[in-house]
Amino acid sequence: MSSHGPVPPGEPARPVPPGTPAPPADFGFDLDAHEMLRRTHVLAALGPDWDPVAAMRGEEEAYDLLYSGLSAEQQRIYDELVAAGVLPRRGGGDAAA
């Protein structure tokens, strides 16, 4: 067993010579239990009436409103951003769709 390893029960600790570097520390954390608790709290806060499909539908409607009624200049910029791949094409081919 190295001088840096754990000391088995019942064995006296061996002195470490001065100037010997300490072994690297192992900082491993298992956050699975915490993540499950966090998800449980999120779902409890959303309540039993939360409908994820309706939430996504509402988000899509909000985006449609955001890109509707654009001026000619705004429409041009929107089309440039779509062509560059920055924004997805929404609706039937123009932002007001």
Characterise this structure:
The protein has 97 residues and is mainly α. It has three helices and no strands. The chain has helices spanning 32-46, 52-66, 72-83.
Walk me through the topology.
Blueprint: H1 32-46, H2 52-66, H3 72-83
- Mean pLDDT metric: 83
Order of helices and strands: HHH
Rg, Cα atoms, Å: 30 Å
Low-confidence stretches: 93-97
Cα separation of the termini: 73 Å
Number of strands: 0
Main beta sheet, described? none
- Overall 3D shape: elongated
Structural class, from secondary structure content? mainly alpha
Share of helix, binned: 40-55%
> How much of the residues is beta strand, in percent?
under 5%
Multimerization status: single chain
SS element count, helices: 3
Concise structural overview:
The protein is mainly α and 97 residues long. It has three helices and no strands. The longest helix is centred in the middle third of the chain and has 15 residues, at 32-46.
Note the main attributes of this structure:
single chain; disordered C terminus; 0% strand; mainly alpha; elongated; 97 residues
